[in-house]
Design brief:
- The chain is mainly α and about 200 residues long.
- It has helices spanning about 1-10, 25-35, 40-60, 60-80, 90-125, 125-135, 140-150, 155-165, 170-175, 180-200.
- It is rod-shaped.
- The model is unreliable at about 1-20 (pLDDT under 50).
Length: about 200
């Protein structure tokens, strides 16, 4: 009888609660917030898969998703103290961090792409900028204006926004409420016509 009682007490000993529901993501995250490094490994195992799935759906690139997932888990480790269980579950909190990181990566890539495309456009047309700078205030300036006036109105507007106002082609497209492909074509065709016009007038 005493042996049975002893076994029952051991079965409900506080030392054994790690195998129960208290070791779910919420409790693990709270333990991590308190500096319990051993709690991070099971927390990682519990949330890493869902985080990877969410990030991959946003980025559509498995390599980038794996990289961002690691960044998210590092952020979880560093900012675990910000988790408030009364506001939601640990998994929900981690997924918010993951979504934010993934969206930031997308926006960063888009901004980098826009800068590169603008630089490429400028590199392809160095003569236009050189001419525009050199002829201003001189007789040739009228020739530049005449060549600009020879463009179609949509081409002229796109060129003005891109080269005189410094807009990217995406910004031009949004301002004109036109498809990006259409704006690209207008810029390309307009710049070719300008170059031909200016060369013919020399």
């Amino acid at each position: 009888m005493a042996d049975r009682t002893d076994r029952t007490e051991r079965a409900h000993s506080p030392d054994d609660v790690s195998d129960g529901p208290a070791d779910g993501p919420d409790e693990l995250l709270l333990r991590v917030a308190q500096g319990d490094g051993e709690a991070f490994a099971p927390l990682y195992d519990a949330v890493c898969g869902p985080v990877m799935g969410l990030v991959c759906r946003v980025l559509r690139d498995e390599d980038q998703a794996a990289e961002v997932t690691q960044e998210v888990m590092i952020e979880v480790w560093r900012t675990a103290g910000r988790f408030r269980p009364e506001l939601g579950t640990a998994k929900a909190w981690v997924m918010v961090l993951a979504h934010r990181r993934a969206v930031d990566r997308v926006r960063s890539a888009q901004a980098r792409g826009a800068r590169e495309e603008k630089a490429a456009l400028l590199d392809r047309m160095p003569a236009f900028d050189e001419v525009a700078d050199e002829v201003e205030g001189r007789e040739e300036y009228r020739q530049v204006r005449r060549c600009l006036d020879g463009l179609t109105a949509p081409q002229r507007e796109a060129v003005r926004m891109a080269f005189y106002e410094g807009m990217t082609y995406r910004e031009v497209a949004r301002t004109l409420e036109s498809p990006e492909g259409t704006v690209k074509s207008r810029l390309r065709d307009g710049l070719h016509r300008l170059r031909d016009c200016l060369e013919a007038s020399r």
